[in-house]
């Protein structure tokens, strides 16, 4: 009886001991995951060349928290794989693996975004060739799409999901529907194209090749409603026809005026002003999206009340774009052009102060 009582008394102690060991292991794993990305990053920085180490540090360091999440999902996924092929671990592994795929895709996309903003724009500008900002935007979206597609394919391949067979079976069933409702399906697909491409949005003023001009009142899945200017009538246009014609968007065309001020330490003579104007125009004329015909450089004399008079240059640039992404990238390239102007003028021995930041003023397109 005494032995039985002592054995029963030790059972709770053993159970709590297992719980404490488990909690200690979990705490160790969490602490290890917090420290592991930093350890790996420092190890890579120590072995890579200086330039590659700088690029890695600037692009990867801001996302240590997301890297820890990826490591956590990877560790849990590995544990479930080693656990065994039973029902619970199998479906649990698929769920964790799906989260791992999503987290890894987000991490890769954000690292590329950081690399794109910090290095690619600057490298494109330093190449000495004309910089096409629209091509940069397309490249950015293409890489993000490639990351998503690659993640889907890797997940499908590692979990025996026959993506090609699934798409083929869906295609056979959808073929009959496509023949039965060809016209309606064409209009529906045209609506999807308009939503993705977004050549115009509601309240934009657009013009069509047949002379139609008016304000977009709504964009449906099958048709778009345009309130014509002058008559005020409502025109309903099938979406598939809008995807096959040239559309002139008067509202969507954005025009932003950028003002940059250079204050020189002394009065600048006319010959030097001509040199400065030439350097400024040469530094901005090769940027797509900058209207070179509207670029203007004016000089004026500043009298600061008793001190020596100075010359100030006002640089007026017009940035053209069709969306927020293109405008943001062109502003970044304009900042790079401003740095180029500063370097070239200092090579000629011209000393000046430049106001920070640039002044941007919206200049709407005249309808």
TrEMBL record:
Source superkingdom: Bacteria
Keyword hit for Transmembrane: yes
Annotated transmembrane regions: 15-36, 65-83, 133-155, 161-181
Residue intervals of the Mechanosensitive ion channel MscS domain: 183-251
InterPro entries membership: LSM_dom_sf (IPR010920), MscS_beta-dom_sf (IPR023408), MscS_channel_2nd (IPR006685), MscS_channel_TM-2 (IPR011014)
Pfam families: MS_channel_2nd
Subcellular location: Membrane
Keywords: Membrane, Transmembrane, Transmembrane helix
Membrane topology qualifier: Multi-pass membrane protein
Family label: Belongs to the MscS (TC 1.A.23) family.
Protein name per UniProt: Mechanosensitive ion channel
